[in-house]
Amino acid sequence: MSPSSIVTLVPAGGLLPAGPAGDDAPALLRAVAGAAPAVLARGPFDGVPFADTALRLVLLIALAVVAGTGLVRVLAGAPGRAERVVAGVAALVAVSAAVAAVTRSGAGLTGWTLFLLLVTVAVPALLVGPRPVLAVLPAAAVTALLVLQLAGTPGAPWFAPDAGYAVAGSLAAGAAVHLVTTRTDDDTRPARVRVLGIAAGTVGAVLAAVRLAVAGPFSLTDVHGTGFGRAALVTVVAPAAVAALLLAETLLIRRAANRVRADEVRDRVRTPAALAAVVAVGAASLLAALPAPAPAAVPGQALLRSVDLGAGPLTLAVSPMRPGPNLVQLTGAGGTVTGPDATMPAGHGDTGAPAGYAVRTGDRDVPFTARSGAPGGWALVDLPEGTTSITLTAGGLARAVPVDVGTDRTAPAGASGADGPECLSAAVGRILAGGDPAPGPCPSEGLDPADALALRGTVRALASQGAPGLAIAGDVSPRSRAAADVVRTAAGAAGLPVRPAPGPDDALVVVSGWQHAATTVRDTARAAQTTPTALGGTYLAPWLLTGGVLGQSPGTLLPLDFGPQEQVPQRYVRTLAAVAPGSAPSLSGLRTWAATTGEAYTDPAPALYGAAPVSVPMTAADDDGGHHGAPNEAAWFPGGAIVRIGSALTGPGRADTDPGTGAPAGPTP
Q1: pLDDT, tens digit, 9 for 90 and up, residues 494-548
Q2: How far apart are alpha carbons 34 and 40 in whole angstroms?
Q3: Is residue 631's pLDDT more than 70?
Q4: Which of 1, 116, 549, 630 is deepest in the core (most CB within 10 A)?
Q5: What angle do CA 439, 445, 449 make, to 5 degrees?
């Protein structure tokens, strides 16, 4: 059931297991998806293409039938004509699927592929010979290849139960094929094969049940509501059905009054048993091409996972996962919400788009709406104790998502308020790094010393440039109040007047949260179109480095102690894009991600960076390496550029010296 990681029977691109742990999944995504605390599951879009999945399904089912018809020779003896035909057809199908996969990949035959073809053809060839029992040898080799495809390497997770399931599935398929092609019990051999089928079906069902209980899905909601869950359930039910049907046949034949009645029992039981054996192997082969199950929701831990409501992949986040108000975010392609900047993930479609998504709790539907400064759709829902699931709805479709809010009502201050999106972004940063998914203190609850240093440097730079004054735009959060005090103190020390509102040539320093900042920046930019307003520049606090704020103005400046295009920040951006498509990077998310991973990314001193839209959109690459012309939503500033425009903001009242000439060099707005 696990994707194979060493043996590929056909070249990459033709037929490979997939999903978050598959060989064709990005290494970055595999690492994140494998992090123990990360409560996320990828959506069905992470599986292999349909054609590859179909080829894998056909190939592995055919291999199981071929292997089984050879393995049962020890108990069944010489096969009948019908059984030889079934084995030959199965071998032909397996060879055809392998060749089709090789052709699809565009690569040549590999050694493993040639070995597969050889041993597969050898089984039916030996069945028609004078000593059909020799077919056991190539059948064992086919079984080994099947094990490597369903279970992976010996070191893979769940290798033992998956390998046992592959062997049991082959034996059950072989027993069922022999019985369905043998309509009489003239000797004891069919009875022995029937016992083998009962044992193989029982073992397969037990192994699948153990794997389901230990490896997930971890809730009934995911078992019946996801493709992986339904396939995993079939891997339990199908082999159990084989065992039950063959056991029923044994009991009914013993009670049959005559030969005619016994034949009727065999006719009614053996065909469904054979179909169940084939379905069991097919379901197991599908598991590797489906998204892995998410760990169970844990009270007090933010939930991050993918869902699909028919319009494309969506990323769902829920925080703080406690009884009471919870903030739910939905981002991704193909969805619309109401309000300004209403597209998901952000800002490039018609505003005020019709409502399409809602979250249902109990008998109440809460529509997703836009929040200024934050990407995607947002819903504030009240989850009482005992809530086990929430339901996403759109266009008549519904998807249930398991949750567990527990009983502890203690939640981080601000987790569901105006600064909730930034608080959630910080929690997602920890999840990306495999850290504690529990939302910590919200960034808006305190001023980071690095941000205070950056704001002081900004004020000193403004004073050194001869700015006539500045105005401060803040809100009621503890961070904003502390930041405003820092700016006032620095302005007083520099002799720079602080005004209640920006004059024509003053600078505007924005130290509020995302929501208030987006509104302030947008209103200031609009006012400047008719009346000179804050022509000295709009300066943003470092934590406002997010596309939802930067995109509200034709130009802003902000002090940063790192370059957004440098290697470590870009690694965080790529990780976020791979695990939570549609989510926007943020300084708070970068900080928690870097703190968890131990990555160092900051410079000794901050510098001013300018952010502005670009006339040619920064595009996102297609799968084929081309560009489709749409802004890259995973960037720090989708559709814009962020560039350093000055040297370090250090010293008591001047900028640092130019590293090339040694002369003083101040930032240029």
Answers
A1: 999 999 999 899 999 999 999 999 999 999 999 998 999 899 999 999 999 998 9
A2: 10
A3: no
A4: 549
A5: 110
Identify the pLDDT of residue 615.
60
Q: Can you tell me the distance from the alpha carbon of 46 to that of 241, in angstroms, rounded to the nearest whole number?
A: 31
Mean pLDDT in residue range 407-435: 88
Instruction: Name which of 21, 46, 156, 40 is nearest 434 in CA terms.
Output: 40
Beta strands in 395-435 (DSSP E): 397-402
The one-character DSSP state at 55 is: H
Cα–Cα distance for residue pair 427/409, rounded to 1 Å: 18
Q: Residues with Cβ < 8 Å from 347, sequence gap 6 or more? A: 341, 547, 548, 551, 638, 639
Q: 396: left (phi > 0), else alpha (psi -120 to 50), else beta? A: left
Strand 507-510, strand 470-473: pairing: parallel
Question: How far, CA to CA in Å, does 640 sit from each of 248, 630, 631?
Answer: 69, 12, 8
pLDDT by residue (tens digit) across 197-211? 999 999 999 999 998
Q: Where are the alpha helices (DSSP H) in 465-586?
A: 478-494, 514-528, 547-550, 567-579
Whether residue 402 contacts residue 348, with contact meaning beta carbons closer than 8 Å, is answered with no
Between CA 528 and CA 514 the distance in angstroms is 21
Q: How far apart are CA 487 and CA 539, in angstroms?
A: 12
**Rounded CA separation 186/279 (Å):** 29
- Beta-strand relationship, 397-402 and 389-394: antiparallel
Please list, in sequence order, all residues whose beta carbon lies within 8 angstroms of the beta carbon of residue 296, skipping any fewer than 6 positions away.
216, 218, 219, 402, 404
- Between 99 and 451, the more confident residue is 451
Burial class, 523, CB count within 10 angstroms (exposed 0-12 / middle 13-18 / buried 19+): middle
- Average pLDDT of the residues of the chain: 79
> What is the C-alpha radius of gyration for the chain, rounded to an integer number of angstroms?
31
Partnered with residue 612 across adjacent β-strands are 641
Q: Whole-model pTM?
A: 0.71
Question: One-letter amino acid identity for 285?
Answer: S
CB 260 within 8 A of CB 201: no
Helices and strands in the chain: count of H runs, count of E runs: 18, 18
Question: How many degrees, rounded to 5, is the angle at CA 599 between CA 594 and CA 602?
Answer: 85
Which residues have CB under 8 Å from 36's CB, separation 6+?
A: 434
Contact by Cβ (8 Å): 123, 139: yes
**What secondary structure does DSSP assign to 558-606, as a single string?**
EEESS-TTSHHHHHHHHHHHHHSTTPPP-HHHHHHHHHHHT-----SS-
Nearest in space to 472 (alpha carbons), one of 460, 485, 453 = 485
79: Cα within 13 Å, side-chain hemisphere: 35
**Contact indicator for 272, 201 with CB cutoff of 8 Å:** no
Q: What is the DSSP letter of 353?
A: P
Buried b (16+ CB within 10 A) or exposed e, 472-494: bbbbebebbebbbebbbebbeeb
The Cα–Cα gap between 492 and 252 comes to 96
Q: What is the DSSP string of 220-279?
A: HHHHHHSHHHHHHHHHHHHHHHHHHHHHHHHHHHHH-SSHHHHHHHHHHHHHHHHHHHHH
Look at residue 652 in the predicted model and tell me its pLDDT.
46
From residue 603, how far is each of 128, 189, 447, 551, 563 by CA, in Å?
75, 78, 19, 25, 9
Give the separation between CA 74 and CA 137, rounded to whole angstroms. 11
